[in-house]
Each structure stands twice: as C-alpha cells, then as structure tokens.
Amino acid sequence: MKSKKVFLVNPPFEKIYEKTNLKKVVPSNPPIGLACIGASLLREGYEVKIFDFNLYNDKNKFARELKNFNPDFMGISFVTPLIREAEKILKIAKKINKKMILIGGGPHCSSFPESALEETSLDIVVIGEGDFTILEIVKGESLSKIKGIAYKNKKIFINKRKEPIKDLDILPFPAFHLFEINKYKTSSVISKKNPVARLETSRGCPYGCTYCNKSVFGRNFRVKSPKKVIGEFLQAKELGLKEVHIIDDGFTTNIERAKEICDLLIREKVNIGWHTANGIRADRVDLELLKKMKQAGCWGIYLGIESGNQEILNKIKKGITLEQVRNAVKWAKKAKLEVAGYFMIGLPGETEETMQQTIDFAKFLDLDLAKVSITIPLPGTEIFDELNQKNLIKATDWEDFKFYSSHSKIYKHENLSWRTIEKYSQKFYREVYLRPSFIFKRIKKIIKNKTIAEDIKTFFFIKWV
Questions:
Q1: Pairing state of beta strands 149-153 and 124-126?
Q2: Angle (CA) 441 446 449, round 5°
Q3: Which residues pair with 198 in a beta bridge?
Q4: Ramachandran area for residue 156 (φ above 0: left; ψ -120 to 50: alpha; else beta)
Q5: pLDDT tens readout for residues 213-225
Q6: Across the chain, which distance is largest between two alpha carbons, in Å?
Q7: What is the pLDDT of residues 30-66, one digit of tens each?
Q8: What domains, with CATH codes, occur in the chain?
Q9: What are the phi and psi torsion angles at 65 (to 5°)?
Q10: Residue 182: is it exposed, middle or buried by C-beta count within 10 angstroms (0-12/13-18/19+)?
C-alpha cells in the first residue's frame, strides 16, 4: 500500500517585520514546530517534505515542489499577522490539487479556530499541540472523533480540546534533517555560530502575564528529562548545527531540573554553545545555576524584564520585582554570561514617567543587548480581551497585528498618544545604545568576535527603529 505524503509549509515570518529594519536580525533557523510535526509523521512511516518560505520566498518554486511531491495533505503553521500570507499559499495549493486536504496549526488556529476556517481555504485546523493530532488526521480517523481539531463539513465543527502531552520524552527527536540546514544564518548580534538549532526542553508556562498567548501549550508546565534534552543537543550537533537556542517559555521554571541539564551537558562533554533565546524569568535563577550554565556552554541569557516600574509589572501580572531583576543581572555578569533584556512600553497604565523609568532602568542594568517593543494586544491574550471590552481595539484585519507596525491602526491607548509612545520607543534606543560606555563595550566585543562588518550593518540601526 502506498505511503501517504504530507507537505509541511513555513510561511515567510519576516513579513511581520517587513517595514522595519528589524528584518536584518530576524533569526533564521529550521522551524522547531514543523521539525516536531515532521518527526512524528516520519516515525509512523509517512513521507514528509518541508518548504520554508524564509529560505525561498518564491511561490513558483513552492508550486513546482508541491506539484512534484503530490502530497495527500499539506500542513501550514502561522501566527495571527500571517493569516493573509498563509491564504495566498493555500490558494496555490488548492489550485494545484483540489483533493489535497489542507491543515492549519499554530497560535492563530488555536485561538480562533472558527475564524481560521472561515477566512481561509483550510479544511482542518489543529487546536493546541499537533504532534499526535496530525497522526490521527493523516491515518484517516473520523474527524468527529478527533480531539483538538476544528473542521469544515458544510458547516464548521469544533471538537473538544485534546489533553496536553504529559510525558514529553515520548516525542521523537525533531526532524532537522528535513531542512537544508546550511542555508540558515542568524545574525551575529544574537548568535555566535551558524547554523543554529532552536530546541524546546519544556512546554507550557504556569505564569499569567497578560500580554502572552498560551493557546498552544497552555499553563501546564511539562518537561523533557535531562537525558532527553542532552540527546537532542547531541543530535543537533551530529547533523551539523553549531549552536542551540532554547525557546522554552520557562527553561528555568524548575531551577533544580535546569541544573541537572547543565550537569549532564558538562559530564557528557557535549561542547556546543547555547543561550536562552526566548527569555527566562528573573525570579527563577540563582548564582549557582548561572555558573553551571556558563560551564555547560551557555554564552548568554535573555531576561523578560518588560518594565522599570513596579506598579506596571504588577498590572501586567508579571510576578517579578525590580530587585529580582537587578540580582539576576548581577549574578549573570558574575557568572560571565552575556545578558540581554526584553522590554515593553505602552503597557496598560503607562505614563511618560513610567516609560522614562524603563529607559533609566535599562541603562542602570548596563545590558549587553536591550530590545524594546511597543505593546501589541495580541489576540488570545488578557490585554486584548480587556481593551476589546473597553472598545479600544480598532484593527479590522488580522494583518494589522504585526510587531513594530502602525500601532495606531490596532488600538487606542487609554491615556497616551501614539506620538508620545513612539517618541519614547526611539528615546529608549538612543539613550541605551548611544552611551559612550555601551559603544566602547560593543566595539571591544565585535573586534574580539571578528564580526565588525556584520555588526555595523545589523546592530547600530536599532536606535532609529
């Protein structure tokens, strides 16, 4: 019997940043989500091919490869601002083969399954984790009996959500071999070596930050064992990937487990550089852990700091204190780790004073890298729901929800004008990055790392965003 074929697609993520200079430093990695879905399908004997528009933003090439592969199913994962781009891809697929079943996944499908089916050519959307759900679909189970999906059959049906996968160790290793690994290149601003593998060691986040969408993995924190994690590090290394970026929502949520992973990386002499690309919490680190991370090959951490005002942090339910942030940065520097911070301005309750406090706090911390974004109330978050209830959401198109887009099209801030918020966004970069001490430190680093030309092109633009 002929094996079923599945064609997996990653839409062009850089479209989210297309009108900003940030597209120069958008990470280029094999997408971990499709690597996991592909691995599950391969383990069951299905044929799998992946097309990544971030490598080849060429719809003609996509059409040729899709036609040649002639799959039974096509899967595409996308975030809210890319729904229109995804639909363009889906229409091409339907034109090539009307009988092909089109499956959608990702945060938008999980948050708005009915809308995703109404507004696109998708036949089925996966709600939540898709590792095993995709197998039931491809196997041909009755759609009405598959938990965690919504589908079209004259009208739209939304099934009961599937329980999260409790034991992540049963998942296969991500199928990175399906990608043209050596074609991926991440900027030296956020990596040391290329190509980079993005890995997850856990899923779910138990915290309740109001700006975060947890529609896929939920708030139930689940982990891979340290042994499983080390196996994935080793597999990535064997495939030719030179660096690992951990994208967990909470790599250090369980501090003792994180220490065990580090101990095993050291004992097994894995010897590959890594960092916590998705950010870790300032209240979930200690000096011992950070020293172990450094010894285990970690070269830097990102901290989710968000604001320099405690009342704003409390309002967004961040659950950390400014003192905890100061300690985390101090300990990381003591452990000789590079320290970067994520910040947000225009949060609920913000004033000009609180935004300036965030700028001053970022300067005080003296980070190696600081990134600020103007708050976007992403669909599926508490902030979105609150603003929507107050009739402050103005966006009428999902594409409006692009990071660094025209925020005035998306929503009205309760007490600040967009001109004021944007002024402080630019002020953040100017004040943080144009300090003589920062410039001197950065010049020393790029000379040491021999990345002068690339850093000139990709780093110093930030102050003008």
A1: antiparallel
A2: 125
A3: 245
A4: beta
A5: 998 898 999 999 9
A6: 68
A7: 999 999 999 999 999 999 999 999 999 899 999 999 9
A8: 5-158 (3.40.50.280), 185-464 (3.80.30.20)
A9: -70, -40
A10: exposed
Structure-token pair, residue 192: 């040391």
**Could you tell me which residues come within 8 angstroms of residue 16 by beta carbon, excluding any fewer than 6 positions away?**
79, 81, 82, 402, 403
Which amino acid type is present at position 449? N
Tell how far CA 426 is from the center of its chain. 24
Side chain identity at 239, as an amino acid letter? L
Tokens describing residue 372: 């600020």
Amino acid at 53: F
- CA 357, CA 432: separation in Å to the nearest integer? 12
- Its pTM stands at 0.91
Query: What is the spatial distance between Cα 97 and Cα 249, in angstroms, rounded to a whole number?
Result: 38
Distance of CA 237 to the CA centre of its chain: 22
Residue type, 244: V
